[in-house]
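Entry: Acetolactate synthase small subunit
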Amino acid sequence: MSALKIKKGATSHSAYNLRPNFSDVEERHTLAVLVENEPGVLARVIGLFSGRGYNIDSLTVAEVDHTGHLSRITIVTTGTPQVIEQIKAQLGRIVPVHTVNDLTVEGPSVERELAMFKVSGGGEKRVEALRLADIFRANVVDSTLTSFVFEITGAPEKIDAFAELMRPLGLVDVARTGVAALSRGD
């Protein structure tokens, strides 16, 4: 008798091997979900994540079509490719969901976030905070004798870098909007 053996970890090239090859490496994905603007939709979307133990790194929601009563939910999440595929499939099954787009895999996209930073301090730290704000193109939206509130927009990595530099200069508080994203091109 002849037996066909496949080494552990090897892939079969059979037409019946329908299981795609997925990685165990976690990836960050930005999902754009177009939904009906009605009560309870956001709770259902969030419930899908919490009920299955998926994490949301960023979440933004706003009505994008007043006449059609449609809202866009932008979700940034991290997971293995299998988990991301499960999330997209489960989101697509929620009744008020119109479309689910994975901007990470669909091509180039633009991501921006707005953040405000309250920085308190005096002397050289105050001067350094203003200098760094100028480099990062952050705007001063409030100023007192002891603190500044900076407003900055950009990619999440830029916001993170600004926060790290402001921490030793007297960072008191941070407010972030979460990621807004659109695909590039046509």
